[in-house]
User: Fold these one by one.
Assistant:
Number 1:
Amino acid sequence: MLERSGIGISSGIVMAKAYVFRHSEIYISHEMAEDRDAALALFEAAYRKTHSDIDAIEASGEDEKALLAVYKAMLEDPDYLLLIRSNIKERGYNAAWAVEAATDKYVSLLERVNDDFFKERIADLRDISERLMISISSDSRREVSVPYPAVLAADYLLPSEIISMDLSNVLGLCLDKGGVTSHAAILARSLGIPSVFALGDLSFHVTDDDVIAMDGKAGTVSVNPDRRTRSSYRKRMDNELRSEAELKADAGLPAITKDGFQVSLMGNIEGMEGIAAAIKAGADGIGLFRTEFLMMQPEYADEEKRNAIYRETVERMSPYGPVTFRTYDIGGDKVPKEMKIEEENPILGWRAVRLCMEMKDLFRDQLVSILKASASCHGTRLMFPMVSGSEELRSVIAFLDEVKDECRGKGIAFDEDIKIGTMIEIPSAAITSDVIARYVDFMSIGTNDLIQYTIAVDRGNEKISYLYRPLHPAVLRLLAHVAESAHKNGIPVSMCGEMAGYPDYLPILIGLGIDELSMAPSSIMEVRRRIRTLSRSSCASFANHVLSLPDAQEIENALKEFNSTYGKA
Ligand code: PEP
Ligand code: MG
């Protein structure tokens, strides 16, 4: 039995067979090349890269010169290259397979030669071919697919992989990497997949024959659990079922504090799948629709399809509350496969409105779809991501005004009163929120990015997750300032970052006067229950008190004490 603990990402207890997937392994598909010319071009590029890698090693030192000369001779061997190329051109193999097949043939020839020198060359040839295959397979990404019901143990998963894979067999997710607010984590929570991340090198210690028991809330994983551990996980499952049933009993009740302060509880969704979960949890609407994830689904490119998705979302939610469409937050770690954006520093780079204001056709098409959907339900909201200040906001709003005019000119109906908001997720926007608030109907705090940029800590990097502190005084001061700016300007303030979905933070968030909390639908019931045990006035004095504390540790201690004194049930 192997036990590990990581970061609990999405709650749920699972015990099931494992399925292992690692990007770091060379994957050789034995499917025919779809396009022989493209496969040949892929091989030639890999060949050039491998050649220049060896040149670079050679240039960097004397020691390995003789060995590298042998490597180069093998790499340049005309018969070997001819065989690889004809495997592609004549036989139709894909690039990696063509290298593998040519190498296997050469290895079997070398094995037959009765000469030690040639026999020793086998390892060299394998090394060269591996370099070629790694270079090829890093360009032709392998699809993740889980062939039987299992806990998927992987090194990491990209958001685009989660979005495009068939999840029907994924009972749980154990990843070696990933932080608590990485987009992979957000998707796992939103899709309700029990998940534990930051498990070190766990995926290297698991095989498909193993059984994994995992607790997505506690962040614990046990590979091939013994009898005692199995029975402890079974007990946890029973407890979880019991508390779920209790929470469901509160689903129809308002999220109101004991002294009458009502908070709107909204759902965060990434696609249509989230709507049913939000409705079931009793959401008062959708506070954040991360529309960029739709772009990772091939059918979305079709305009009619996009219009239908947006319209259906507002129509299905209309009995419960408004839908907040956030315009595309493409960039960073959310890049659709076909959009090759390569930047030194993507998180600080060409993202969201920065990108949309340059790709105006793409932006216009989306704005028109949102405007059209607003005609189906009064109160629909449109929100801009990654706005850095009032100038940028005004230019984006000016573009929206142009698009509205175009719609009027074409007789396209939309809600003239559509609510316009902005995310506050960059420190410069938070600091100037008193100015920003003059131009919008609402502001929504994206704590995932706001924390990342305020503390300069990559939200997806588990190595530095100890620095990712939502209760850092700098973060809390920004939250307080944004709430005050909103209220002074007579507009509501919402929070749609992951912080909104953690019941333990509620005394501070309610105390600061956040009007609306938007979260993964799976968190709504627990948050509602906690709100009903709190009093707004004691939360306000508590929030005031923590704002005077010097560091995250003291604030965390104070909050722990508050939560244990003002019980949770
Ligand atoms: C945020 O940054 O808090 C947010 C809600 O947006 P995303 O997580 O999609 O970056
Ligand atoms: Mg964000």
Note: The pocket of magnesium ion (ligand 2) is lined by residues 385, 425, 446, 448-449 (CB under 6 Å).
Number 2:
Amino acid sequence: MQMTDLIIKKRDGAELSAEEIQFMIDGYVKGVIPDYQMSAMCMAIYLRGMNDRETLDLTMAMVNSGEIVDLSAIAGVKADKHSTGGVGDKTSLILCPMVAACGLRIAKMSGRGLGHTGGTLDKLESFSGYNIAIGEQRFIENVNRIGIALIGQTADIVPADKKLYALRDVTGTVPSIPLIVSSIMSKKLASGADVIVLDVKCGSGAFMKDEAQARELARGLTRIGRLAGKKCAAVITDMDQPLGRMVGNALEVKEAISVLKGETRGDLLELCLTLGSCILTEAGTAPDADTARAMLLRTIEDGAALRKLAELVAAQDGDAEAVYDTSRLPLAPVQTEVISEEAGFLSHMDCEKVGLISMHLGGGRATKESEIDLSVGLVLHKKIGDRVEQGESLATIHAATKEKAKEAAALLRDCCTFSAEPVERPAFIKAIIT
Ligand code: URA
């Protein structure tokens, strides 16, 4: 078999066989197939697409390029959730304890934030002492004992994706549905859960700016998940503005705790109930979405989900007292209000730029090696559709210095557009694909 022939075949719109796809991934991971040939193949896939059979074969070849996490020592149904990445997305901190409090098992490997989007591991490290590297044995023991563990990736899963993604990033071939689906689903399948729910973000702060593309991606992800034998659902959600009101690591933990305490409702709780009911119904724990929502809401009302978060933090050596007393979480030394110079209805917010403001304050990473400041970020007082008066505060910036706060305040004002006419609030849940 020759890689050149496979490139020509795909370039001309033909289907690649399972053997050909396996040959290409094996050869690329081993370094036998060079980057220039794989670049040409990625472009051919980008232009010609792949059918479900090819996408599944590509996904499985990628899964088999590395280790596969074995969760068989954990009793019960294991659930996992994936978000395509957003701003202010602290969903896992709320959803995972809620779902675990309903009796499902959460054995989750999460990532760190990069660029304008945050990562669950950084948020969890806002709890002093929280250990993201407890080792495989403790990971399994904790899930069997308390139903939940959230750690950093241990096994060397899907090395093919690390190499391919870096190549796609510099060859204009990231936005190809079969390539995105195989990249995301290979990592989810290698992580070993039985039920996978996907939160596909759509809007100015998301990877998918357009709803039609987000739908196509969500459908592709669920189809491949199911073909691979998993229970799988996807939700398409708005990312034209940050999720909830807080952006920044410790701030997002505070907001998540406030939802778990039943003090904060709105889009964030709605998203957790929607994703959670997909998990509970797919797992067969609840017969329908209404029952699932009621079960999930009960975990907030009776405090079970909040206690589950505290158990998680304690089981991973973190300061669990901070779950009940959030003054123990990191707090930035400077807090500055962002005063609106205009009056009107907030009509647009450049969500990606809001994420970048938090990153420049020190809350996110420009490169994988960057150190982050867990205390910084921003708290939005206004969201799209809200009336704003001149002189009113749009947000509070939490910063390390006055200079950084001033800079961030000016940037945030530039992210906001106002309209003299009332503006409709964007629909938050755009579609549920089960
Ligand atoms: N996220 C991934 O993990 N892979 C992609 O290809 C795109 C987004």
Note: Residues 17 and 431 are 33 Å apart (CA to CA).
